[in-house]
Write a structure and sequence with these properties.
The protein is of the alpha+beta class and 229 residues long. The chain is built from eight helices and eleven strands.
Length: 229
């Protein structure tokens, strides 16, 4: 489905596109499309030629790789207003798989057209470089977490990252993705994930109600995240 005026205004809120003129934004949109995805549907597969990059309108997309035995390792999660695969347009092939975790909608942008626009727009080039730099910085932090932090630390950090801005005590958070996906994203085995959650409950740091978690002791969780578990 082609992008309409409402979609264009939503796209304008992205850091990559917010400084484009109306004419430039419409040019990007003219080579874009709206893609609705059902839960589990593949967006692209590892090794496929890269023709599009994406912006999530709603839902959640997991970016992952698979081992020889079929085990998934979730590398990243992209939610509303987040870009994914924007750096791959220079690589030629997607280095991992992408699939919808839940019913989702993404905006797909044509890589060739976007690269043609960048040749005439220095500001757009710098914005893409900024986006790629932030992603690289995030990957470096992720390597630090996986290699230097314990599973308990990583889970405590993840829970704290879900706390809404400005909330100071006893927040309720909702896990937006399945626990198996979170465990994979954190580099934790599912059974280890369950054991850590049980320990946090028994220590009085959290209460769980299905996919909703009450963080009862933010101070203790922050201490746990800062110290080896």
């Amino acid at each position: 489905m082609a992008l309409n005026e409402q979609h264009i205004e939503q796209i304008r809120q992205s850091h990559l596109f917010e400084q484009l003129t109306d004419a430039e934004l419409k040019q990007v949109a003219s080579h874009g499309q709206v893609v609705d995805l059902y839960a589990g549907q593949t967006v692209f597969s590892q090794g496929e030629s890269c023709h599009h990059f994406y912006l999530v309108q709603r839902g959640m997309i997991k970016l992952y790789r698979t081992s020889v035995d079929g085990t998934e390792k979730v590398m990243d999660l992209a939610g509303p207003k987040q870009l994914f695969a924007e750096a791959v347009m220079f690589a030629g092939k997607y280095p991992l798989h992408a699939a919808a975790i839940e019913p989702s909608t993404v905006f797909a942008f044509d890589c060739k057209d976007f690269m043609a626009q960048m040749r005439n727009n220095v500001e757009l080039c710098f914005r893409l470089m900024s986006s790629m730099s932030q992603r690289l910085h995030g990957m470096i932090n992720e390597i630090d977490r996986l290699t230097l932090h314990s599973g308990t630390q990583r889970l405590a950090e993840y829970l704290l990252e879900q706390v809404p801005e400005g909330v100071m005590q006893s927040p309720c958070i909702r896990l937006l993705v399945p626990k198996l996906v979170i465990a994979s994203r954190l580099g934790i085995q599912p059974e280890t994930f369950s054991r850590i959650m049980a320990r946090l409950r028994s220590d009085g740091m959290i209460e769980t109600h299905n996919d909703t978690i009450l963080l009862k002791d933010l101070g203790a969780l922050r201490c746990l995240a800062a110290c080896p578990g």
